[in-house]
Amino acid sequence: MKTKIFFLLVFLFSASIIPAQRTDTLSFYSEAFGEQRTVYIHKPGFYKYKSGSVKLPVIFLLDGQHEWFINPILSDIKYLQYTHEIPNALVVVVPHKNRNDECGFSGLQPGMPLDIFITEELTRALTKYNPGEIRIIAGHSFSASFALYAYLMHPGFYTAVMAHTPLHELESLVEALGKTGQADKDRIFISTGGIAGDKDYHHRKKYDQLKSSYPDFFSDIVTFEADYSAHNAVPIVATPVFLTRIFERFRGRYAGIAKTDDEYKLIDIPETAEAEIDKVLEASVIGDYFYPPGIAEINGIASRYAYNGYNSQALEIYRLGITYYPDYYEFYLSLYELTYGQDSEQAREYLNRAEYLLKTVETGWDGKNALLDEIRIEKVKHGWE
């Protein structure tokens, strides 16, 4: 029988008590630029809960000095993460002090300061955030050409490049990227706006010319032609399309695990708890990289098992959850519910751990004190207080 604390927990969780994203300001001296530089690290809300085994993809956003560009792109990313279209990531916003000098080039020679800054200096500085090996670089207009240049120079470093309506040295870039055998063409994403004079005329005109001159290249890459969008609007409409394509298999990676019908009943009888865990781990990939289930995915899978009476499977899923998110109190409350009546000492440890995390990790939010009160009631009821 479920206790009062379980129902309170479900209510609070459904009210989205996972904290909002947080932004770190990271400043350090850059040898490449010969001066102090600052970037901004947008971390997902669950960041404070995770263990070192959760390595997040990194999205580098150039033109960080332009709020009109960065803010809507960040909103695109947050919404796609909220709807589970793409994974949570570290979004690294890179401002430029002199955009033209930093992103401009003549000829495709290695050694641009901005390139060194990102691939070497910034990458070292990001080590403390425990980043994964998935790296995406995105730019707009002038910085879009630099993003293509960066991918050309380091196809093994970047997983994908999103170049929104580029123009600067575009033909040189297209020709070089088309000839190289090291860069995967399907990891190159180029967008452009409308041909009308009040849309994206000059950039679209060049794009159309190159598309005609280099048909093989443009058939191999991913493009988005925003025919009704002006130059500055293109990134806003193209970014969701590109990111969804880059992570197209992410949303459905656990679709075959604990499948239910319209009444939330399991369609198939699950295998042993160990076998179900193996299925989850096998599905926990993005491309060639391991990416563990998120908090919502753990809760979703475990709740389907528990609702249908398969408590041992639910129990192991939640235990898997605390290996990846050891500071997330809610998993411990769920484990308490599942173990009480079978192993009271283990249940007591889970309840105490949840209480401790609520007091030490969580900041103030509506309902926290009520939940702590319910935990104390549970402890008194069982003689643990």
Tell me the series of helices and strands, N- to C-terminal. HEEEHEHHEHEHEHHEHHEEHHHHH
Q: What spatial order of strands do you see in the largest sheet?
A: 1-2-4-3-5-6-7-8
State the CATH superfamily name of the largest domain: Alpha/Beta hydrolase fold, catalytic domain
Shape: elongated
- Helix fraction, binned, reads 40-55%
CATH names the topology of the largest domain as: Rossmann fold
Q: Estimate nothing, just give the exact number of structural domains.
A: 2
What is the terminal separation in angstroms? 22 Å
Strand segment tally? 10
Number of helices: 15
Uncertain stretches:
10-17
Structural class: alpha/beta
Q: Regarding CATH, which class of the largest domain?
A: Alpha Beta
Largest sheet: 8 strands, mixed
**Architecture per CATH nomenclature, i.e. the level-2 architecture of the largest domain:** 3-Layer(aba) Sandwich
Descriptive overview:
46% of the residues lie in helices and 15% in strands. The protein is of the alpha/beta class and 385 residues long. The protein has two domains: 4-13 and 252-381, Serine Threonine Protein Phosphatase 5, Tetratricopeptide repeat; 19-246, 3-Layer(aba) Sandwich (Rossmann fold). The strands form two sheets. The chain has an eight-stranded mixed β-sheet, sandwiched between helices. β5, α5 (142-153) and β6 form a beta-alpha-beta unit. α12 (311-324) runs antiparallel to α13 (329-339) and α14 packs antiparallel against α15 (368-381). The longest helix has 17 residues, at 344-360. The model is unreliable at 10-17 (pLDDT under 50).
